[in-house]
């Protein structure tokens, strides 16, 4: 470092209001450094920042990187450093090296995303241009905080990324597209370990930004050749299958196996470890039930509102556009709307795979003389939304207690010690404030509904988190049963508390080889010594064995009531 260079540089980040630029802003400020930020809505312009900063960092989308560099490269001081954070390096390096300034030029690619809690154990690629003392300063600073520095040139970097990044994303996107085109509901019994692993990878990619992935595929000039090779290999192996050319298939398979021979033992061992760590629940790839056809039905549907909730999303998925939707403030109000015939159907949450039975729904099933005419399972993916796009601006997180509970581990990891406030609903939390420092844990739908920015995606702790919703009506609806593929019977039993009564009741089902899929007990509000048992069992109410079992259970119960089919 030259004697004239200040000990601590002024860092300037163009794009520092974005997610990745904001991450580095927070990192540098955490090191006690002064950070200048220029973005679309800042008073400080990129040109002004380039004149003031000792280290000028360009952190903007790939497609706008070249233009930004052209605008500011000649404004960078001779004793400063110009660098970028994009995931392709040839294009930005070419443009940065055209500067008329005698400044340093370095290409940087952090091999991680803005949701990692720290730079510790993360890899950062440095591509040499005209390195200077600030290049070494950055490397030392990153290494001091636990990062691994990878030194290379921009040509090698882009060739590597064309395979390790662009190709893997490309394969997983196409994998999901092919499955989608089969119009096939994947049955859990057929989900092999390899399928599960591949689906996890595809889900990891498809949970990201389509804009970012399209840039990674299209802006890396090396990937066009990789994509053509991929196309050729797919075409070749397809011809082997269609012609039943087993010899050629096996020959090329063995060539690939020989190429990967050193990695295969490691891959097999790691695959076993990963599968053992995966949630026990199988992976399901479902079709959207919004395409169901209800030829003879239309009308109004009540749901637990307001709009933008998971109940709203489930309702919109179940019912086609010819049904109008009526949000209700509580689950009880949904039941009242249906019971008073103000709506033809109602949609209420019944059970969450993480938080369990929704007691208010069960209580209202007992209270109202209504029928369950089907059910729908909605995968619950939680999003962190805010009016700001910068993760570091968040000071408070608000939501309903359930989304907070379902993302507790993620929140504690990424926002340790942050103030969390509970509201009666996640949407109510959004409507309660316009403070840009407040974030909300809720659904993707809420972002569209209320004009919020997505700060983080899929923050739920359990990726198999689902909520089951019941569709309720005043009378039976065979068409809804069929459309929602109802296959289970819902029953409520009221019993007097005595030793062995539950055993006697359950024996009526087990002796007929009927499988109970749900059993929930509740103390009766009417009589302190009575209990209600809520039962779900495989089969429909009209099934002979179920009718016989319920007749047998009546001798032990004061009430036996069939709610319907789910």
Provide a descriptive summary of the structure in words.
By secondary structure, the protein is an alpha/beta fold. The protein is built from 21 helices and 22 strands. The protein folds into four domains: 11-152, Rossmann fold (3-Layer(aba) Sandwich), CATH 3.40.50.720; 158-277, 6-phosphogluconate dehydrogenase C-terminal fold; 383-456, Periplasmic binding protein-like II (D-Maltodextrin-Binding Protein, domain 2), CATH 3.40.190.10; 487-566, Alpha-Beta Plaits (2-Layer Sandwich), CATH 3.30.70.260. Helices cover 40% and strands 23% of the residues. Helix 3 (62-72) runs parallel beside helix 4 (90-96), helix 6 (154-181) crosses helix 7 and helix 20 runs antiparallel to helix 21 (544-553). The N and C termini lie far apart (72 Å).
CATH class of the largest domain: Alpha Beta
Give the averaged pLDDT, no decimals.
Answer: 86
What multimeric state do the chains show? single chain
CATH-scheme architecture of the largest domain: 3-Layer(aba) Sandwich
Q: Which strand order does the major sheet show?
A: 2-1-3-4-5-6-7
